[in-house]
Amino acid sequence: LKETGVYGLFWDNPHKLHIDLGYADDQCWRMEAEDGPLDYYYLAGDSMAAVVSAYTRLTGRAPLPPLWTLGYHQSRWSYASAQEVRDIACCLREYDIPCDAIHLDIDYMENYKDFTINGERFPDFPAFVKEMRERGIRLIPIIDAGVKVEKGYSVYEEGVKNNYFCKGEDGEPFVVGVWPGDSVFPDFLNSKAREWFGSNYKTLLDCGIEGFWNDMNEPSVFYSKKNLAKTIEHISGKAGKNLSLQEFWSITGAVATLANNPEDYASFYHDADGKQIRHSEVHNLFGYNMVRSASEYFKEYDDKKRFLIYSRSSHIGMHRYGGIWTGDNASRWEHLLMNLKMLPSLNMCGFLYAGADIGGFGQDTTEDLMLRWLALGIFVPLLRNHCTFGARRQEFYLFENKKAIKNLLDLRYSLIPYLYSEYVKSALRGELLYTPLGFLYPNDERAKEIEDQLFVGGSIMIAPVYRQNEKGRLVYLPESMKMVKIKSVTDYREEVLPRGDHYIEIGFDETVFFIAPGKALPLANPVSHVEELDDKNFLWLKNSEGEVDYELYTDDGVTADIRFENIKTIKVK
Ligand code: MIG
């Protein structure tokens, strides 16, 4: 340790933690938990990469997602009818925009009830899933954490009958307000409840669905019934009175603190297989176990097949069950940079299948922001364009510069064999998919400072533009690398650049990456969806005069689990 100064610390505690990494006192790290065990793992290793591998050895390996999940995902809150989804799919194909998935946000359900489908807006859902599938598009429905309180709704009734919901102090299911109105939370810390909730996915799996996203699973609470009643009473007591400012603020304060209130989290309970636990003590395990419930059921449903599930909330170790997206960002340039910076952090926690809403979820996007975000997104496993209702529409065919969008998305599809191979190798070896420069060049002080360039897999480094009005950017090369400036597999330029700083112009219709010495990568011909990919004939790019080895992973993209014999060493001439 003295020699390398490198180590890792993993504190296994699901309580609320406060962590100060040298902010108040730069000589000291301070980590506090409100309660819970002082169980921590000290991870040694002679490099940061070795510490990460030690950590993923401890917490487990990320499973392989289906290959189609590396395609482009179109989303918006909401495409609320089969006809609307069909129109979106038609427009994408009409404008020759490759796509593998369209997401169904909460409005596909009947009154926001999990595992229901609104029959008026989506008549004959299985036939519709099939119709989309024939166009090469999978539908990805959302499943929320809150279950609607409604007599006759089977999920609610079964849950009540079997004590599968979290309970309040009175021993009754704890009622909160979320999208369906009065709702209850499945007790994901209870193995029976978890199994039961997971088995409900059958309804959608039987319709041909192969991928899901889990939302609102922090769990998110708009209000608790208890607290809302108290607040309304407080406010009505003030009606018609001449209020002091303090009294007025007590009204705004009470309303503003209704959502996700810590008092509410401390007033409902889990039955963790016989052990009663206050929710606030295990808050971070809720989303984790929600995803686990689905993932474990998928294995039961069909253990030969891979399914997609990714979540908004998570906790350390959840990567063994599913992926993650970074939730409600906004259409802001800072959030594009944050997306870039979070990729290695998520990897370090074990998550390989990850992504952000490109273009931004909240607020109105702009074409320049979208194009620059896409230029990063093409290197990220979950490439999803998603945005909130009320914000300006951001489906790609609505932008002016269609050529730029087409170039970048085509390039994404060309990169899939590389991304897939690198993903598998990272998963198998417990390594990062995105490596900060400081990990690879520990003796280069400049490299250690750089947070806006990353290695993607072992062969290439990216340096996306993330500021408005900039035609390019400064890139630091810690050693000589080959720059590839590429519009398409038939239109690119290569140049070996020396170590040091370079200003690189990057147009909206192209991207730039840098191949490390002695490395290579395959580029496939672009296609409209993943199933059409030719995984045998590639354009090989390399940074070497002589022959270079590349470990390529290919398989059918759907059968569960990685097969080692599918890693082949290719001699790139
Ligand atoms: O209260 O389902 O992060 O992606 O579109 C908002 C509606 C609930 C939050 C998710 C977002 C999704 C939205 N959801």
Task: Characterize the structure shown.
It is a single chain. The protein is of the alpha/beta class. The strands form nine sheets. It has a nine-stranded parallel β-sheet. The protein is built from 15 helices and 32 strands. It is globular, with a radius of gyration of 25 Å. It is 29% helix and 23% strand. The chain starts with 7 loop residues before the first strand and ends with a strand. The chain binds ligand MIG. The site of ligand MIG has 11 residues, from loops.
Brief characterization of the structure:
The protein has 573 residues and is an alpha/beta fold. Helices cover 29% and strands 23% of the residues. 45% of the residues are buried.
Helix content class: 25-40%
- How can the largest sheet be summarized? 9 strands, parallel
Bound molecules: ligand MIG
Given the C-alpha coordinates, what overall shape results? globular
Total E-strand runs: 32
Helix count, DSSP H or I runs of 4 or more residues: 15
The low-pLDDT segments are none
The residue-averaged pLDDT reads 96
Strand share of the residues? 15-25%
Secondary structure class reads alpha/beta
Based on CA atoms alone, the radius of gyration comes out at: 25 Å
Distance between the termini: 41 Å
Q: Strands, helices and their partners?
A:
Elements: E1 8-11, E2 17-21, E3 29-33, E4 40-43, H1 48-59, E5 72-74, H2 82-94, E6 101-104, H3 125-134, E7 138-144, E8 147-148, H4 154-161, E9 167-168, E10 176-178, E11 181-184, H5 191-199, H6 202-205, E12 211-215, E13 223-224, H7 225-236, H8 245-256, H9 262-265, E14 268-272, E15 275-278, H10 285-301, E16 308-311, E17 323-325, H11 333-348, E18 354-355, E19 357-358, H12 367-377, E20 383-385, H13 402-429, E21 434-436, H14 437-440, H15 445-449, E22 454-456, E23 460-462, E24 472-477, E25 481-488, E26 491-497, E27 500-505, E28 511-515, E29 520-523, E30 539-542, E31 548-553, E32 567-572
Parallel strand pairs: 5-6, 5-20, 6-7, 7-12, 12-16, 16-17, 17-18, 19-20
Antiparallel strand pairs: 1-4, 2-3, 8-11, 9-14, 10-11, 10-13, 14-15, 21-22, 22-23, 23-28, 24-27, 25-26, 25-28, 29-30, 31-32
Helix pairs in contact: 5-10, 12-13
Bound molecules: ligand MIG.
The site of ligand MIG has 11 residues, from loops.
